[in-house]
Amino acid sequence: MELIWRILWVAGYVLLAPLLGGLLAGFDRKISARMQGRRGPSVWQPFYDLFKLFQKQSVVVNNVQDFLVYGFLLFIVFTGGLFFFGGDILLVFFALTLAGIFFIMSACSANSPYSSMGAQRELMQMMAYEPMVLLAAIGFYISTGSFSVMDIIAAKESAIAYLPGIFIGFLFILTIKFRKSPYDLSTTHHAHQEMVKGLTTELSGNILACVELSHWYENVFLLGVVGLFIVNSTWWSWIVAVAVILVSYFLEILIDNVFPRVKWQNMLKTTWVVTLVAGVINLLILTMIK
């Protein structure tokens, strides 16, 4: 019975994550517009844009780039599927990193100055957020004694009770992963990017649609990790987790509309400081009380 439930969770993620991710993008646009004194587009506009991209002809730079983009989508879906199946959280994060490498390689294969610059900045962003991602996995293990997502969920106490600093640090790096200001350096949905669209400059048509779809899958997975900090063996913790996820996403939208974009040097400094202060100190204290 447990295996059936796990399979249903994976099937739900594969089928429903695009819908949830698209709705999140739609509410992101709507809320951002209201913050800027505009009416904003419909919450369904991201779906209209995605369908239009799938209908357009794709201008292919090279076949290698297309293969790498499809690999990016595949590994993102695999990452989320493994997470919602209740697998090893460390393996989940490694798969997420591998997906990011595919995305960077696809930009490098285009031989475009804008794509190459975007790839270099994406590497910088990975250097900024990967330490905190690794600390999150280690923190889950120390607090629950297991890397298994199922064991973390079945714990009597929520992981955030032992990992408040790592939780704050993880929310901090989500600004990078969601490609929000002030850390939307490699590519952005705003018009202020001096590299046109950075990583995705040379992508078009259904290939660009696959990238957008991958981001929707990724966003739902990352918010699932946020919920993992909250969920425990009690039923009501799931309700609290959903509330925390919604508040966290709204906070990311607010930060996106309040803070201007910074240089990559500032991104590295601030992210590593947060990782050191919030993450490492949290782990040191945790190892002493456990």
From TrEMBL:
User: Keyword set for this entry?
Assistant: Membrane, Transmembrane, Transmembrane helix
Its localization reads: Membrane
Membrane-crossing residues?
6-27, 67-85, 91-111, 132-153, 159-176, 220-251, 271-289
Do the record's keywords include Transmembrane?
Answer: yes
InterPro entries listed in its UniProt record: ComplexI_Subunit1, NADH_UbQ_OxRdtase_su1/FPO
Q: Does the keyword NAD apply?
A: no
Its membrane topology: Multi-pass membrane protein
> In which domain of life is the source organism classified?
Bacteria
The cross-references to Pfam families, in alphabetical order and at most eight, read: NADHdh
Q: State the name under which the record lists this protein.
A: Complex I subunit 1 family protein
Q: Which organism is it from?
A: Solibaculum intestinale
Q: What is the lineage of its organism?
A: Bacteria, Bacillati, Bacillota, Clostridia, Eubacteriales
